[in-house]
C-alpha cells in the first residue's frame, strides 16, 4: 500500500526522529527548509481535515477500481496527462488507470499545483 504522507514529510520525520537537529537539515533540491516545512504543514492539515470514518472498505472499492487509494507513480501521472491532452473524458481516464474519477480529478489538480510551485 502506498504512503499516506509525502516522501518529504516522511524523510523529515525520519531525520528528526533519529535525533538530527533542524539546524543540520538541508534540502537537496534548492528549496528552503521553511518552504518544505510549510508544504508538510499544509499536507498534514489537509490529511487531518479529510480524515473521516469511511463507510467503505478499500478492498471493496478496488474490486471496481484496481488502483484506488494507491500512491500514484510518475508513469501513471504522465499517462494521465497524455490521456487528458488527447481529449479523453475523466471517466475514460479513470477506467484506463484503474482509478476513481474523483481520484483522477484530484491528481490533475495536484499536478497543476506542483507545476505552479504551490
Secondary-structure blueprint:
Blueprint: H1 7-17, H2 33-50, H3 58-61, H4 74-85, H5 90-97, H6 101-115
Helix pairs in contact: 5-6
Q: Specify the structural class.
A: mainly alpha
Q: Quick check: average pLDDT?
A: 83
N-C termini distance: 26 Å
- Proportion of residues in extended strands: under 5%
**What is the CA-based Rg, rounded?**
17 Å
Uncertain regions spanning at least 5 consecutive residues? none
Count of runs of 4 or more consecutive helical residues: 6
The total of beta strands comes to 0
How many separate domains? 2
Task: Sum up the overall morphology in one term.
Answer: globular
Biggest sheet overview: none
Helix content: 55-70%
Strand and helix order: HHHHHH
Summarize the structure.
The chain is an all-alpha fold. It is built from six helices and no strands. It has two domains: about 1-55, no CATH class; about 65-118.
Polypeptide structure, described:
This protein has 118 residues and is an all-alpha fold. It folds into two domains: 53 residues, no CATH class; 55 residues. The protein is built from six helices and no strands. Helix 5 crosses helix 6. The radius of gyration is 17 Å and the shape is globular. The model has no long low-confidence stretch (mean pLDDT 83).
Task: Give a quick set of tags describing it.
58% helix, 6 helices, mainly alpha, 118 residues
Amino acid at each position: 500500500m502506498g504512503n499516506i504522507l509525502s516522501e518529504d514529510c516522511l524523510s523529515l520525520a525520519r531525520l528528526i526522529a533519529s535525533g538530527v537537529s533542524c539546524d543540520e537539515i538541508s534540502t537537496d533540491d534548492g528549496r528552503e527548509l521553511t518552504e518544505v516545512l510549510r508544504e508538510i504543514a499544509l499536507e498534514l492539515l489537509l490529511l487531518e481535515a479529510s480524515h473521516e470514518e469511511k463507510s467503505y472498505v478499500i478492498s471493496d472499492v478496488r474490486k471496481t477500481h484496481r488502483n484506488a487509494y494507491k500512491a500514484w507513480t510518475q508513469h501513471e501521472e504522465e499517462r494521465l496527462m497524455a490521456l487528458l491532452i488527447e481529449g479523453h473524458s475523466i471517466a475514460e481516464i479513470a477506467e484506463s488507470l484503474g482509478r476513481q474519477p474523483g481520484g483522477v480529478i484530484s491528481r490533475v489538480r495536484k499536478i497543476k499545483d506542483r507545476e505552479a510551485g504551490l
